[in-house]
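hey m, so remember when u said the tokens were messed up on ur end? i reran from scratch. heres the input so u can diff it against urs
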Amino acid sequence: MFSKVLIANRGEIACRIIKTARRMGIATVAVYSDADRDALHVEMADEAVHIGPPPAAQSYLQIEKIIEACRKTGADAVHPGYGFLSEREAFATALKEAGIIFVGPNPHAIAAMGDKIESKKAAAAAGVSTVPGHLGIIEDGRAAIRIAEEIGYPVMIKASAGGGGKGMRIAYSSAEVEEGFRLARSEAKASFGDDRVFIEKFIVEPRHIEIQVLGDKHGNVIHLGERECSIQRRNQKVIEEAPSPLLDAETRSLMGAQAVALAKAVNYDSAGTVEFVAGQDKSFYFLEMNTRLQVEHPVTELVTGIDLVEQMFRVAAGEKLALKQSDIKLSGWAVESRVYAEDPLRNFLPSIGRLTQYRPPAERREKGVTVRNDTGVFEGGEISLHYDPMIAKLCTHAPTRAGAIAAMSDALDSFAIEGIRHNIPFLAALMQHERWQEGRLSTAFIAEEFPGGFSVSPPQGAVADRLAAVATAIDHIQNQRKRGISGQMVGKPVVFERRRVAVLGDTSFTVEVDEARGEMQVTFLSPEGAPERLVTLTSDWKPGQPVWSGRIHGEPVSMLVHAIANGVVLAHRGAAADIRIYTQREAELARLMPVKSSAALTTALLCPMPGLVRAIEVTEGQEVKAGEALCVVEAMKMENVLRAERDATVKKIRVKPGDTLAVDAVIMDFA
């Protein structure tokens, strides 16, 4: 076993690799750009080496800088994580020539599988089911349209190099092929330095299922079961789980056998993933092979009990696999939610800034349930414009799928983040979605279930009662503290009013609050003042804490808390509400307060997120129609097309390609 490993990556995956290396007694070296000088992975590693300015092309993608950092620190191995250089044959080859161990597959396997076009040819030769498509070089948009029409719509336009949803578009018509081909090539060039794309048939209602494989340098290859990654947005995975609710034992065995056959065909010797697109009838076709550790590897670790990073270290050091296929048993169910820095209420546009609050749920293993949080950030740290927007990977494991989903719901309800926008409200809503809970999935799930975009659901029924009761309890606790403050005016003693009015949007509840035998009781009253239902709560919540945790009717409950005037914002089980707590007289007066009307529609195009202007698609004086492309803004490695919301005339363009914009910066004015 080598003695020191350099992690050629950043963020949560660098931190996750460091944890296993530390447990195995392997010293670690972090590398960092100017933007990551104070990052968590730098703090966790035994040593750290600066490798350049923030853009990845000038730091994390610089092979020679990584090798020089190895020489400087004496690192005898490099783990690439995922992304960046992890699937670059040139990187593995350069390390080998420098006498440094690459903790990953051999260069031949990377070359064979890293190129999506060549990998499909290799898969077909190995007897693996493949999707109909065109694997040759496509010269221009006209050729792309001709090929798409020969295959039949819909088609998938995909970058040959790389992954992670970059350089990927689905097209249902010739117009969409032309635009998708251009954007896919541009994204592929920017992300991977390779603008080749290919086209294949897009399977209707497809499911994304992948097989985890593990090989050594002695010809042994096994698979560790499957993961389902069908919950995707813009071709990027949002939720993953293991095993898949679609597969039965027979289909799992067939997919696993094909994945192993493909890995053996290219002498694969590390952890890797063979991805398939599956039909609802359990038919499946080879999609691609990722010759690296996957982002979603924790769910496989949770259901198998196998540390994949440890296995990669052992294989790279020349050890034989200590596991046989018959040793692999899947136990329970695991779910992973990717927590992103993005605004789900603004079409999931990226969000950057400082994490003024970052309080993830406690990692634990109790009563058959595991909560795991892989992260690379900390409270007070910054989310940078230059890298992937992932904040954390929250994982839960339980004996059943329903148990893992329930545990995830609880964990999301107690995950507090402030300072930036994030997708936890969306993840929490997904966990409550009936179709998700039933396992009726496809990669079009989000587009189909949220066609108009995402909005937070107003609380209803039992959830509304819970929120109103907790808000009342919080108000009661805060009032108790206020009454205990010294130096108050001398006079009539403050009379505590047990009756309150809880206002949730257009709904009002009249409640009474009492304390008895260590619990708080909130009674909901009818309009006539008669008791209707009782909610009992116990909690040790203190003012200022971002999460209310306790029990309601004896069941454990958590919800996020944010203070506002005369009340709180509470979020629970995918629902959220501003809840105002008034005395009866205050409620009467509040009804008389004027409500601000929404602002008129703007006559300007505002930048919806911090980003870099890639292209301006219109000119001053041009008449545009609703839906027409106006400009392209790049943020966090994704190109976003901003379109006209209504028919208008472009009056003045205020930016140019290459400009860096802040959120809500004016891009152009309309007449």
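this time it looks ok to me. Confidence is low (pLDDT under 50) at residues 597-601. if urs says something different then somethings off w ur setup not the seq
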